[in-house]
Amino acid sequence: MKRESWIPLSDGHEVYLWSWQDETIAPKAIIQLAHGMAEHSERYQRTAEQLAACKMIVYAHDHRGHGRTVERNGLLGHLSDENGFERAVTDLKEINEFIHLNHPDLPVFLLGHSMGSFFVRRFVQRYDGCVDGVLLSGTGGHPGYKGKTLVKIAEKQMKKRSKKSEGHLINRLIFQNYNKKISPKMTDFDWLSTNQNEVRKYIDDPKCGFIPTIGLFYDVLKGLDLIHLDSEVEKINKTLPFYFFSGADDPVGEHTKGIKKVIDQLKRHHLNHVDYRFYHKGRHEMLNEMNNHEVIKHLCEWINKQLYKVAKNE
C-alpha cells in the first residue's frame, strides 16, 4: 500500500514523501531512498514493490527542485539559494528522523542513486548512528580537473546571469559524452539503460530530463569535491556496511573505474565492510535494466546478510 504525505522541514520548506509497504507481511527493515538528478521518486514505485516483497518498507521523497516537491515550494531544477548540497543532505536527515519516529524498532538502510548517492555519502560523513547500512547505485568518483573547470564556468555564469538560470552549457558539457560508447544510438538518454521502454518512459515523463539550474550544478560539483576529501571520509563510522552496485557500462562511474577509486579510498580509511557488484553490459540505472529482478534479488540478499550479522551479535 502506498501512503503519501508532505513533510515540513526546519527551514519552513515542505517535501513530498511517500512510502510503500505490503501490509500482509511483517516488515524487517526500512529502505530510505534518495533519487537522482532531473528525475523524481515515483519512478521507483516498481522497485519499492519488489523490495516490499522482501519484507521491506520503502520511503522515498522528491528532493528540492524535483518532482512534486516543486508544487509547494522552490524552482524546478534548483536545490537552494545557499548551500544547496548540504541542505539536501539535511533534508535526508530530517526525513530519517521522521522514519525512526514512526518505526523505532526497525533497522534503516539508506539507498541513493546517482546524485542521491552523493547526498547519501555526505550523510554518513555528517551523521553517525542513523542508518544500519548504505546502498549506492550509479555513483561516481572525483571529477578531477574537469570538475574544477566546470565549477569555474558555473561561477562565471552565476555572476553573468543568476544561480536560478538554466545551466544549458554545463548540462551539455557534463552529459554530451555519456552516449559516446553506445552504438547504435536511439536517443540522447540511451546511457541510462539498455531497456528502451524505460528510456522512453523517462523521455516522456515531464518531471524528468529537464535542465537543472546553474546553482544546482555548482552545488553538486562543490559537493562532489567535498565528499572525496580524506578528512571527510575519515569521519565515517568504520563499522558501517556499504554496498555499491553499478552497470559496467555506466559512464557516471567511468565504466567502474571511478567507483573502484571510491571503494579504495574507503578501504584506506579502514572501512572494511564494503561489497560491490558490477553488472556486465549494464548502464546507469540498474534498477531499470533488463535484469532488474536480479538486481533486486542481490540487494535483498545483501540486506538480509547485514540483518543476520546484527541478530547474531545481539
TrEMBL record:
Keyword terms of this UniProt record: Hydrolase
Entry-linked InterPro entries: AB_hydrolase_fold (IPR029058), Hydrolase_4 (IPR022742), MAG_DAG_Lipase (IPR051044)
Enzyme class: hydrolase
Source organism superkingdom: Bacteria
Enzyme Commission numbers on file: 3.1.1.-
Statement: the UniProt record of this protein carries the keyword Hydrolase: yes
Domain named Serine aminopeptidase S33: residues: 26-290
GO molecular function: hydrolase activity
Designated name of the protein: Phospholipase YtpA
Organism: Halalkalibacter krulwichiae
